[in-house]
């Protein structure tokens, strides 16, 4: 399909908004030269958008409510920090270790957790996250709950991720790659099986698909992606702490996915942006911002299942109705 | 250019404008800055379970500023408060904001060690002065010390060395030690053992925020020690002491504790804690003029007794006041400001105060008993504790 | 470990279990019959503790506080149900998890705003201070009260569920919700009453825990996690399962915490045991849950759904 403004117009509102937002985010560093704090804030948003994207794969598309996803964020953070502690700053080695760790842990915990469903699945994922939380708290040589400072940023050749611009660029490129990759995976055979298994698993099994294996693969993939986000987060805060794996962080990731719209491509980006900016705005307003934030989450849940993307889709539907009117020149009854 | 549907174009424009507005709003908020007063950053845990401590630190700091007419060292100051929510990453974000957006020359506060570990390096590397008024993890007192860091509290080990010294002074031959299973808890036990000359029958690490200690209390009763030493800050302390008394032990089996029964937890315990012995750097009845006026002013302003967190933060404010006065408000001259801080030429509520070579205080610790008082119970300091064996972090600190 | 100590520790485990049962009963009912994941249950426990503490400090009578607490918690439960949760019952678990997660944040901050960030004062009532001689073992009187009250509530729940008409409706609803609806029972009212009952049970747990634990914002979450482990082990929707599971969890957790460190010390060297011991002890109940779910994914006493 040739890239033209016409092509752009045929895309859904959500997709167009997402692409425009990406363009704005790409240009952001040019405006942030005088304010490294805002650059760091938006880098944080991008990192969490990527983490939410990984969760959206299994939660939004796959229907697996993992309440322990912050575990993989933590594994990514600690992977970078522990290797750095032992003098290994090579970004590639750290990345490899993080992927291996997340894949292993994801495989083991996933194969146990995915045997259950519903509330048990939620509880088991939460339980595993708690177990690792206690494990890292007890590791004194890596700081325990006092945390571990990142000795030096992960280096990829000449570039160091601790540099503000480098980190932002990496996070942005990773997010774009993630969005594109997600789009391809969802529309692939693998992705279709995952989505179908969400709506009716029994049917898929009857059709001969080993749904357990597909789900496990999706879970491990999601874990690895979240781990990468963790590695970036370690470079942003230059610190590792077990508190990164707390269940409240897992809850916040779920809120971001839901706020953006479950099972939508740009949802995680919208969700992360909306939630983190709202948090910042509320914090500036009052010390007791949680008393407003809590009900806001409740209202969001009550109001709309599909979040921001759902809102865009509703606009699309109304647009299509209007469109029908102007084309024929008559109003439809 | 014609659109098949004019409203689609408008919708797109609206969306773009909204996104741009959001981004601009965030930008604008940061650009608005006041010019003249000296800005002081204040990072503490203001929400969550540790919020009471951060609140004490903040209230005391603001009290000092109010007493001096909104100025420190004769210079008007503006305090920018940030809440770290007991999360190191939020602490880093707050520090980044204060350093990169607000360009503060001084930051103070910091309640918990994990946040301190996360923000110590970014702040001191930016050549901004960090006046810690509570957390004092071992690395920043020793190997990772920085000329830009001053503490008005203590290093974490010192708290427990004082406890161990007190236990030795009181003549207990066998002790049972308990703490929560986290870094501060483990440091507490090692600090205690450094100065306790008797025998530690057992050291038990319980789960952080564990609600029920009945099992552990039964175990310690069975072990029959001479006394028990615990370190349970915040809610854990309230839980433990309540259950210790409930088991009938408070009053029969001596309980020595540090940071467990203090200004922030005593209101929840009241007379339940009477009879407990603690070791602390501060108590409201310390007999010096600065403390007397501090306690009076604090009770009048906030209707509660000041805790050691408040006392340390009040000292920090007075330290900054003395330093700013010496440099006449010229915060740009870092060497002069550092020298001014080092002199510690202010009246501390703790009594005699000077800095060690690692810029941590060389100030007294006291035996503080929980006695009956107005509103149930109060903390009463008696004898000062002279710590014999120190971890001597100062020796590990290569600072002139 | 001596025999006396073992008895005491078992009693301690039972006491913890009974406290967990009070929490688990409410949660499993709400979850089993209304199919509603209620993370805000811990917040009900916290509000119960705060209400109880305030009432006790105001009136000076523990019994009066207990009596006044029941309508207070019922009102709170019904209010929360009406304002926030009513529309969520037919929705996905995910929506319920998120909405009640938002409620946790709200209630924690609300408690902080009303009662302050420091722990709040509540004492053990006069007539329950001291110890009682039980089979030659001295055990704190107040903790015996907890065990007694918990067992009483368990009995009350049994009578309610198995011997009354309402209980029959509840059991029917757990088994086949649609049928009950079709048979003309006002499901909305039943849901509201169930949620209210859950809130009352959680509030009672808060009342009993208040004197021996710290009453402060955020006290609900550690208990909530333990409670959720209990109901998953016991089987969702089953009061019987909740009862046995809470006792098992209470005893395993208590004995684990006390026996494991000394066990490890005999195997590993001291410093390693001191690190591994507490860490493993805190993981114990999660390992227990994983082990049980591996064998019986529906829990120990699952409700048979039609």
Identify the most extensive interface between protein chains. Answer: A-B, 49 and 48 residues
Question: Stretches of chain A where pLDDT falls below 50 for ≥5 residues?
Answer: 326-333
Query: What low-confidence regions of chain C span 5 or more consecutive residues with pLDDT below 50?
Result: none
Q: Work out the strand percent of chain A.
A: under 5%
Q: State the strand order across the main sheet of chain C.
A: 1-2
Radius of gyration of chain C: 20 Å
**Class by helix and strand content of chain C?**
mainly alpha
End-to-end CA span of chain A: 35 Å
Rounded mean pLDDT score of chain A: 86
Tell me the major beta sheet of chain A: 2 strands, antiparallel
How would you describe this structure in keywords?
heterotrimer; B: 400 residues; alpha/beta; seven-stranded mixed sheet; 14 helices; 15 strands; C: 306 residues; mainly alpha; two-stranded antiparallel sheet; 75% helix; 3% strand; globular
Q: How is the secondary structure organized here?
A:
The complex is a heterotrimer of chains A (333), B (400) and C (306).
Chain A: H1 5-10, H2 13-31, H3 36-61, H4 70-85, H5 91-113, H6 118-138, E1 148-149, E2 155-156, E3 159-160, H7 164-186, H8 189-199, H9 201-206, H10 211-237, E4 239-240, H11 247-260, H12 267-285, H13 290-303, H14 307-328
Antiparallel strand pairs in A: 1-4, 2-3
Helix pairs in contact in A: 2-7, 3-7, 3-10, 3-11, 3-12, 4-5, 4-10, 5-6, 5-10, 7-10, 8-10, 11-12
Chain B: H1 6-31, E1 38-44, H2 51-67, E2 71-72, E3 75-83, H3 88-101, E4 106-109, H4 113-125, E5 129-132, H5 138-141, E6 149-151, H6 156-169, E7 174-180, H7 183-195, E8 199-206, H8 214-223, E9 227-231, H9 235-246, E10 255-257, H10 266-269, E11 277-280, H11 289-302, H12 308-326, H13 334-343, E12 354-355, E13 361-362, E14 365-373, E15 376-385, H14 393-396
Parallel strand pairs in B: 1-3, 1-4, 4-5, 5-6, 7-8, 7-9, 9-10, 10-11
Antiparallel strand pairs in B: 2-3, 11-14, 12-13, 14-15
Helix pairs in contact in B: 2-12, 3-4, 6-7, 12-13
Chain C: H1 3-34, H2 41-59, H3 62-85, H4 93-115, E1 131-134, E2 137-140, H5 141-163, H6 165-175, H7 177-182, H8 187-209, H9 220-234, H10 239-267, H11 270-295
Antiparallel strand pairs in C: 1-2
